């Protein structure tokens, strides 16, 4: 063991420099979400997300929002397949998983880690954010066709809905465009005002639940996973 040869004043000054020169122990790196990010190939997807990248409840999980291009994302942890867990600071301010290759090549700064493992575990279960799913857990992969009314001015499609990581509230925002008359329904958001659908042109989006004109053959399922 080396002897301490510096005086108290010198040691205190060195400690001060260390504190000022380093980020807090719980700080994480912040990156910028890129446009046209690739869909996760590890989950058997192809193509890109022009608006940014998906936010999912777990790796290869449900779509729960869009991290919009240009927004900041705090990376709390990174999985072996390069999925990132953290918080997006766009209109959603939401914790979640984003697919690989959606971030800027270098960090833009640091931030306090605000997405806990408890939040990660809670949102890994689908009933934490929605209900009336279009199938049982781990059985249906994708949506089920329903009919909506795109001619209705209040029936646009939106990239985001949830307002917090407890999924107790939200509002439609980040306009995506006019949906097709047939979309693939996935689930209804907590609160019962919006639904997640897959549009053939726009991809995964949120819509007003009241836009449905024909549920067709959807069989709702409320089992948790």
From TrEMBL:
Residues 1-27 form the signal peptide. Keywords: Signal. This is Secreted protein.
């Amino acid at each position: 063991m080396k002897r301490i040869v510096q005086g108290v004043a010198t040691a205190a000054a060195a400690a001060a420099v260390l504190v000022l020169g380093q980020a807090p122990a719980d700080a994480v790196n912040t990156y910028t979400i890129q446009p046209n990010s690739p869909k996760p190939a590890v989950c058997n997807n192809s193509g890109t997300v022009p608006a940014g990248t998906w936010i999912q409840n777990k790796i290869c999980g449900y779509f729960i929002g869009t991290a919009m291009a240009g927004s900041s994302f705090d990376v709390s942890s990174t999985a072996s397949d390069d999925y990132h867990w953290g918080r997006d600071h766009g209109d959603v301010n939401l914790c979640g998983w984003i697919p690989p290759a959606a971030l800027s090549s270098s960090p833009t700064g640091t931030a306090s880690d605000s997405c806990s493992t408890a939040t990660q575990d809670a949102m890994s279960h689908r009933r934490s954010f929605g209900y009336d799913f279009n199938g049982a857990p781990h059985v249906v992969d994708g949506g089920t066709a329903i009919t909506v009314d795109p001619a209705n001015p209040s029936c646009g499609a939106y990239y985001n809905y949830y307002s917090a990581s407890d999924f107790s509230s939200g509002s439609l925002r980040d306009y995506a465009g006019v949906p097709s008359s047939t979309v693939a329904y996935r689930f209804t958001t907590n609160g019962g005002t919006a639904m997640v659908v897959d549009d053939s042109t726009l991809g995964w989006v949120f819509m007003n639940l009241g836009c449905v004109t024909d549920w067709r053959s959807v069989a709702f399922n409320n089992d948790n996973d």
